[in-house]
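Team,

Forwarding the record for the chain on the shared tracking sheet. I've put the sequence and predicted structure together so nobody has to dig through attachments.
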Amino acid sequence: MSARDRRGGAMDPESLERENERNLDSLSERIGLLKQATHGIRSEVESQHHVLDRMTDAMFSTGGMLGGAADKFRVVRDATPAAAAAPGRGSGGPGQRARRPPAPLRCAAQVMNNKQNKQMLTLVGGFAAVLLLLYWLLFD
């Protein structure tokens, strides 16, 4: 019902007061809902911030481990003879076969001969398996 009286549009003070009270109640409900939504958003942002911090720490530690593994692979790679110096390689005919296995296979064989390298490969493989398992558990 309007606060205006039918007699020439004059305002009734009591109806204006009731309308103001209703509007204040409605406004206070809306403010309460906005406040709850704001608190929910804040707690979610803080939660996501903590998750990102833990992921950053995990990535830094993973980077250090992978950097160490890459250094070991570099040492092994530098210790292998150059592929160009291998006999039977190069611009040979179509029937010509290499006498030695390809360089990646030679490198893998040399890596697996060293016990420390076997342990490092096992560690890297296990870590990769754990990451894949976590990915599967979290995103499936």
